[in-house]
Design brief:
Elements (H helix, E strand, L loop, with lengths): L1 E2 L6 E2 L14 H11 L5 H9 L1 H11 L4 H36 L6
Antiparallel strand pairs: 1-2
The chain binds zinc ion.
Length: 108
C-alpha cells in the first residue's frame, strides 16, 4: 500500500493523481514521462557531442517541454566543450614546444 507524499491519503497504486489533494502520484509521473517521449539517453548526448550546435539548440527548445532529453543533449554539448578545451591545450603545448625548438635552430 502506498500513500500520497503530500497529504498522506491512502492510494491503491494505480491512480495518477491523489483523489484527496490532486498531487500527481509516482505512477502518474512515470506514465506521463513515458507518454511524452522524454526519456533522454546516451544517443542524445552523442548527438550533442558530434553536432554540438544541435545539442545546444535541442536544450534551449526542450528544456521546459522535455527536460530529461534536453539535459542529455546539453551534456553532450558540454562534453564537446571539454574535449575542445583539452584539444586546444594539447595544441598550444605542441605549438610552444615547436616554437621553442625554432629558437635554437643551429644548436651549439
Ligand atoms: Zn494527497
Amino acid at each position: 500500500m502506498i500513500y500520497c507524499q503530500r497529504c498522506g491519503h491512502e492510494l491503491d497504486g494505480h491512480e495518477k493523481y491523489c483523489p484527496s489533494c490532486g498531487k500527481p502520484t509516482e505512477y502518474g509521473f512515470n506514465s506521463a514521462t513515458k507518454s511524452s517521449g522524454d526519456e533522454g539517453g546516451f544517443g542524445w548526448s552523442l548527438l550533442g557531442f558530434c553536432v554540438p550546435i544541435v545539442g545546444l539548440v535541442l536544450y534551449l527548445v526542450w528544456k521546459d517541454e522535455r527536460p530529461v532529453t534536453a539535459r542529455d543533449s546539453l551534456r553532450g554539448f558540454i562534453a564537446y566543450l571539454i574535449f575542445l578545451g583539452f584539444a586546444i591545450v594539447v595544441y598550444v603545448i605542441f605549438a610552444i614546444s615547436i616554437l621553442g625548438n625554432l629558437n635554437y635552430p643551429y644548436g651549439p
